[in-house]
Amino acid sequence: MPTIYMIRHGEAAAGWGADLDPGLSEKGRAQAEAIARQVEERVGRKLPLLSSPLRRCRETSLPLATKWNTEPRIETRVAEIPSPVEDLEKRGAWLLRVMSGTWDDAALPENTGNGAVDLLGWRKSVVDALTELKEDTVIFSHFIAINVAAGWATEDNRLVTFRPDNCSLTVFETDGSALKLVEKGREAETKVN
Fold first, then answer.
1. Integer CA distances (angstroms), 146 to 44, 49, 70, in order
2. How far is CA 138 from the centre of its chain?
3. Rounded to an integer, what distance in angstroms lies between the CA atom of residue 57 and that of residue 63?
4. For the chain (length 193 residues), average pLDDT per consecutive 10?
């Protein structure tokens, strides 16, 4: 049964409502170094690395990729939740609104731009990306994507089932069709970035 080590990216240099694709802050780079050491100590061997295509995840993956002398494979299905809103300020407000509800609420026309964004399809694609894994894997991803996996594994329909901190490590197992939550990552009252 493959084990999935899912890591939330380090602190971003800008928030979700301020920049479409920020890199890491200084603190985020230090967090990325620390999680690389933690994973290396915990796992004890080189594993495949997957990363969201967004810059903050790719930068978070670099210290572990360097230690293991490997290149993370970009996996678009573990990227950030798609937003139907282009204006950055309004985008942040949209995310805060949908985060307080369920996936059923998120799929309503007022939250999907009248169907312009398929949030339930995106949710299922995150789950598919994880359940298709055939070997232990480390994934660098995002707050909501990690919540998708945790909610799916525990049959919790809320968008936010817990609050993974920057560079926290959440562990899942998959049998190829289902997800099992093994360990929640460190939680914090954190802004989504």
1. 23, 16, 23
2. 12
3. 11
4. 98 82 96 98 96 98 97 97 88 91 94 90 98 98 98 98 97 97 89 58
